[in-house]
Amino acid sequence: MGHDRPGRALAALSVLPALAVAGWLLAGLPLLLLGHFAPLPAALLGLPAAALLCWAGTRRLGKLVEATPWQVAGVVAVAAASGVFNTVLHSEQVAVRRDPATYALYASWIADHGSLPIPRQAGAFGGFDPWLIFAGVGFFDVPGGVVPQFMPGAPLLFAVGNWFGAPFAMPAVLGALAVLTLAGVVARLAGARWAVVAAVALAVSLPILYTSRTTFSEIPSLILVFGGLSLVCDALARPGWWRGLPAGLVFGLAVLVRIDGLRDVLPVLAFAGLLIAMRRSARNKGALGPGLLAGLVAGGGLGLLGGYVLARPYLGYLAGSIRPLLLICAGVLVLTAAGTAAAPLLARLRPPRWLPMAGAGLTVLLMAGLYARPWVQTVTRVPTHEGDQRTFTMIEAIQRANGMAPDGTRLYFEYSLHWAVWYVGLPAVVLATIAAALLVRRLLRDGTPFEWLLPLAVVGWTTVTTLLRPEITPDHPWAARRLVPVVIPGLILLATYALAWLRDQAGRRGTRVRRWGTALAVVLMLVPPAVTSIGTAFTPIERGEAAAVEAMCGRIPENASVLFVERVTGDRFMQAVRGTCGRPAAAVKRVLTDVAPEDQVRRLIERVRGTGRVPVVLAADEDQVAPYGRATQIMALVARQDERSLIEAPNGTWTLRMNVWMAVSE
Question: Which residues form the Glycosyltransferase RgtA/B/C/D-like domain (predicted)?
Fold first, then answer.
């Protein structure tokens, strides 16, 4: 038994992150819904829930992975190095310019207050007024207050960092766990010798570095999706009716982290139906189906409940894409039920002999078509609502900054596979295509290797749908986040399978050919993503924001009611003033300009004064606050920000300046 211990250790270590995350979310969501998400109750419920899931998901693992102690140590070392590196170079995004600051402020609020919505505190301004705005970028008005726009799963995780006094360390910890998680899937499906290669390839990829340094939801989603794949592999290797339940829960809770998780786990629904249909012909494997389906429905149901209660305006904003996705889910459910019922009849059918090769050929043609899109298609969108118009304006601004002709209708989605090539390298994409074609051919021919069916379905489905419609502002590295949950780790997983296959083929030509061929392939896997990342890997962005906000808070009187009279400053700092500084905050409505009308500001100042509080006016420039009192600059931050590149990989950062001026109306 001793020689199995390294493999068992790697198998267990690589699923613990997903199981622990799922257990914490299972406990954290009810506490947040009840308004009692605080360190003590979260620890009393979350730690036992995580421990129970970890026990259930790792007991009686059996011999799943053949690994050496050095391979296990290598994977752990790469994951740990990733965590340390990204902790040291973490970002500090608390000024709401894009999503990470909203996530950070969301996590900070629930860590300190344990409940939603965020109170408006309208009484501090003399009551509600049509010229007062309490919501803003990243935050929606709801009855009873203001709510952040995102799903609650990721903030429930990030809040742990706030409790430990290290709010910007949690993303790096999760990033390290993501590296460990992918290595576990690779060890199971391609062999432990490739786990270290996969861990390094993921850790050095720019989008992983980017999303492991600040509060994004993509890394937790990666942990849940690929952790779920490992759990299914384990369950197939050692079947038991209950083993599908933890895997289903882990998959389903991906919806609580990102609403896009609905799309990512759709193949799991069909796979569970297939397992149920196989209960007669393959009793052991088929026994997993009911548990997998039950866990998936329970986890996904909790995710949708959390979104409906805590992020309903956000889901309404995304209704145009969520409704079709829900219809697809319903269609898959109906087809799965029909296929399960018709399984005995379908089992008698014999596919034509040409189908396996046709499937492999179509796989290659699909990837070739995606790569050729820039030469045959230009994806555009004419603005039809306010959100589209903001994107239009932003793209034109980015094009001018890049020295390009302005055309705000361009979305650049046709370059999506080229984005993947930037970040994992052309050799990895080619290897992944070869692997996908081989696996499609084998699965269509004789249904083996069966353990690859679900991973190939999840990676293939999500990769193709994501690359066809990334649905994100297309500047990089920002747009790279869309590739993080499945596309990049999925390509790496498939590429390692191709490496294993090529190594076996080369072994027929002799040991030397195999050794040198393997070394060359590994170099080709690791060097391109490292070269792409090198331009930004050692430059942290938006550092100093947290300290600047704390200093700003110290300059605002304790009994102040803060009025933002200029658009950009209000968008960036209203929730920071409300949450971090603990001062009531509101923006004054603007009409056709970025600055509020002076007569209305003066009227609102008098209303604040009537409450006995101190009226404070904030804006970006001195002359915007000077009419209301002596102007004082309370923030003058110079930092680095993301580059905004449209048609080539980002290789640097830009300067970011943020100024805040204050006038205290005596």
Answer: 170-297
